[in-house]
Amino acid sequence: MDPLKICFISSEIVPFAKTGGLADVSGALGKYLDQAGHDVRLFMPLYDKIDTDKYDMHVVDFLQNITLNFNGFDITFTVVTTKLPDSNADVYLIHCPDLYHRGSIYTEDHDEYLRFVVLVRAVIESCQRMGWGPDVFHCNDWQSAMLPFYLKTVYQWDDLFANSRTILTIHNIGYQGIFGSDRLGPLNLQEWAHMLPQDDLADNMLNYMKTGLLLADVITTVSNTYAREIQTAEYGAGMEYILQQRSDHLIGIVNGVDYEDWNPETDEHLTHKYSSKRLAGKEKNKKELLESFNLPYRKGVPLFSIISRLTVQKGFDILEEILFEILQNYDLQFIVLGSGDDRYARLFHQAQYHFPQKFGFYEGYHIPLSHKIEAGSDIFVMPSRYEPCGLNQIYSLKYGTVPIVRKTGGLADTVEFYDWESDSGTGFVFEYYNSDSLKWAIDYAYTTYQHRDTWKRLMKRGMAQNFSWELQVQKYVDLYQHLVGVS
Ligand code: ADP
Ligand code: GLC
């Protein structure tokens, strides 16, 4: 079988830029597709946050100062390249300081619509200049969702892409890239307006995600349960009708984990490595972690934790209703690492203020600390309102940190309900999105933790789970092959 030519576009790729799981998935998929022998080329913007000195980056000589024409203005970009670490895959970074040097990856600036159209056009124009017609353009979330539209309109003349197929992976339907349809003017797309949903245009709406969902050859999302959920009004964020109509072209593939990065036996961020056979290191990590938060260590007291973007998606409103009561009534400790909405940051600062022996909060984004928390905690809390896949619960399993999750999306597909009677399962799963259910799960975890032998078995079952990318990447390869007609 010939290697596939895969053009992978993402707004975040580990290790260059990350705000969430999209970056982990993009980096890992790139690496494992390359390892499987395919010609995968990854594209992303060159943000000012990327430390260019850290990687061996150089300008691609035939991709310099390329000008894109819009209506009444031009945008010029240059492409810089480097290898994806631990891999032979090429990453192409679109250098356009006017658009991508903004201090953060995403903005609410007036030209956000342009930043990610330029990404899509820069990818296509780079492929043209490379003379490289990908078998598959693999787009991710709204930031690259306009690519299928551009291939079918502005670049439709180019035979280089005549056999190219498009995939759009939904990592989060909650973010769609919705702009005014008056942007079609500056983008110079008015002659193609008939390709877009007319109702939206009448409402002055241009929805990048929706455009991609309508035009991509195949839609994937990051778990089977989420693939079903987003076809309902509760989870579809307005896209449910389109997804129902396209359900024959909608597939769920659960994310994998890069165990080269997330493995307590080898994790470079841990002072004490451990495994399911040698668990002593975990308790030492716990002591060290508690110390770093100025919390006292007391043997036998369970440590709960959260690592998260602080947004409504992650279930903090139901946690808010019971947090103080739990801290008051249970002999437990709790550590949170996160940044985002002020409302939740305030909640956690207050918890720390009122329960200085029990609660620790680090507000910010800190990758080494996220590894130390995974390793040092006993129980990981993820009560998400919705969760396309979720990675931290899978990392938690591997680190022997038993997850509490709500039964939704990828959480439902990766954590198995712990049943004390049959002594089976890997975590504490609750069904309904309300604080009573979450409290029940916390109580269940707390009580189970007191039974040390049972707890050890529960931890070890989780640690033995395998969600490695080697397995999951084959599912993407099968899909690509099916799309290009070789299987
Ligand atoms: P999402 O992509 O919705 O944020 P995921 O569970 O898929 O959720 O992935 C989140 C990723 O971001 C994980 O790798 C997690 O460790 C990381 N992360 C989230 N918040 C922080 C933070 N404050 N500091 C360090 N890493 C974080
Ligand atoms: C999104 C989702 C998360 C998923 C990640 C990677 O950010 O919120 O559930 O794991 O993308 O696919």
Q: What does this protein look like?
A:
- This protein has helices at residues 21-35, 97-100, 112-130, 147-152, 184-187, 198-202, 208-215, 224-229, 233-236, 240-245, 280-292, 316-329, 342-354, 367-376, 392-398, 409-414, 435-449, 452-463, 469-484, and strands at residues 5-9, 39-45, 58-59, 66-69, 74-83, 90-95, 136-140, 165-170, 178-179, 206-207, 218-221, 250-252, 303-310, 333-340, 359-363, 379-382, 402-406, 428-430.
- With 487 residues, the protein is of the alpha/beta class.
- The chain folds into two domains: 5-256 and 469-484, Rossmann fold (3-Layer(aba) Sandwich); 280-463, Glycogen Phosphorylase B (Rossmann fold).
- Helix 1 crosses helix 19 and helix 12 (316-329) packs across helix 17 (435-449).
- It is globular, with a radius of gyration of 23 Å.
- Adenosine-5'-diphosphate is lined by residues 20-22, 24, 307-309, 337-339, 365-367, 370, 389-392.
- Adenosine-5'-diphosphate (ADP) binds at residues 20-22, 24, 307-309, 337-339, 365-367, 370, 389-392.
